[in-house]
Amino acid sequence: MPNVMLSYSGKDNDQKEEIAQHLRNKDIEPWIDSYGIKPGDKWRDALFEELQLCDAFIPILSHKYLESEHCRMEAFIARSFGRKILPVTVDDCYDDLRRHEETRGLQDIFMVRLQNLSMVSLPMKKTDMLDRLVAAIRHDPQSAPAPGGFVYISYARDAEFATQLAARLSKRKIPVWIATQDIYVGENWRDAQVRAMLRACSHLIVPDDEMLDRHVLRTEILFSEARGLPTFSLLPPRLSVDAISAVNLRKKLEAADQTYRRITDAAPFKSTEDIEQVVDQLLPMLERTLR
Fold first, then answer.
1. For 258, how many CA atoms within 13 A lie in the half-sphere containing its CB?
2. What gap in Å lies between CA 159 and CA 118, rounded to an integer?
3. Is 55 domain-assigned?
4. In 30, 196, 235, 281, which residue has its Cα 20 to 30 A from 268's Cα atom?
5. The domain that contains 90 carries what CATH number?
């Protein structure tokens, strides 16, 4: 059983107990100071020992957590010992992480954001988000074989459609990589995307009218071009049926920098309500890139 330490502010005790109970339901008994430190123990020594020994460190991040020098130091020490860091946020404190030396850099780690009930723009139930946390606790990147070539799927706001598309392609034996499914909690999300891009055989983009404001998507497009990957675009259903919006999007992309103009070199595929029809039209094209 992995040794998992929960780090929290006393102001977030309810959230701590909810997370702890979910872990227990999955046969993971977390170490919590209120239970793990026995009467007579020197609490600083006990905490320091657990920070050295734990397999995974889960900081329950909030504004109250970041206001506590003690909490911030726990996070800093755990990172210094090379522990697996699996952050969970319970309020919108993400932008404050870089303001403290002890937590600077945590914003680059893929985390569970319970306050938003979404991960990389994909709405999720709280139990499903905590299951992702459990999967990350049990995940051993050293033992996981590097997958072969696949289709890298990018999106801006249409995470649900892109994820459904990825699932249907997988069922049709097309290997895919998409952030909503394939980044583990605790990974450096930028590194994970670069590793995936280096192994990708083609790039499928679901464009929309917000994509010019998504800098991560721009980076993915640049990386795809640098590697010379075959790149295809697929309009989401709402743009496929709205000709005016689709034309306006094309004009925006053509007026933007060279990064986005590359997407308009070929006419985009269009979606229908029947996602299987979409897969049917994409399948031959994507299969050729995987050979």
1. 3
2. 10
3. yes
4. 196
5. 3.40.50.10140
Q: Whose CA is closest to 22, among 129, 119, 103?
A: 129
CB 170, CB 178: distance < 8 Å: no
Q: How far apart are CA 112 and CA 140, in angstroms?
A: 18
CA atoms of 239 and 241, how far apart (whole Å): 5
The tokens of 203 are what?
A: 């790039």
Other CB atoms within a 10 A radius of the CB of residue 41 amount to: 12
Q: What pLDDT, on a 0 to 100 scale, did the predictor assign at position 143?
A: 64
Q: Which amino acid is at 6?
A: L
Phi, psi of 186 (to 5 degrees): 100, -15
Mean pLDDT per 10-residue segment, the chain (291 residues): 94 96 97 80 84 96 97 96 97 96 96 94 95 95 70 94 96 96 95 94 92 90 92 91 88 86 82 88 93 78
Extended strands (E) in 207-287: 231-235, 269-270
Question: Which H helix or E strand runs over 151?
Answer: strand 150-155
Instruction: Give dist(CA 111, CA 219) in Å, integer.
Output: 20
Pick from 90, 118, 138: which residue ends a domain? 138
Residues 263 and 269: their CA atoms lie apart, in Å, by 12
Output the pTM of the full model: 0.90
Structure tokens at 48: 């320091």
Taking the C-alpha atoms of residue 46 and residue 58, their distance in angstroms, rounded to an integer, is 17
Q: What is the pLDDT of residue 147?
A: 62
Separation of CA 237 from chain center: 24
In the chain, how many domains are there?
Answer: 2
Both structure tokens of 104: 């600077």
**Shared domain check, 172 and 102:** no
Q: What's the token pair of residue 240?
A: 């496929």
d(CA 193, CA 214): 15
Ramachandran bin of 43, using left for φ above 0, alpha for ψ from -120 to 50, beta for the remaining angles: alpha
Q: Are 207 and 233 in contact (CB under 8 A)?
A: yes
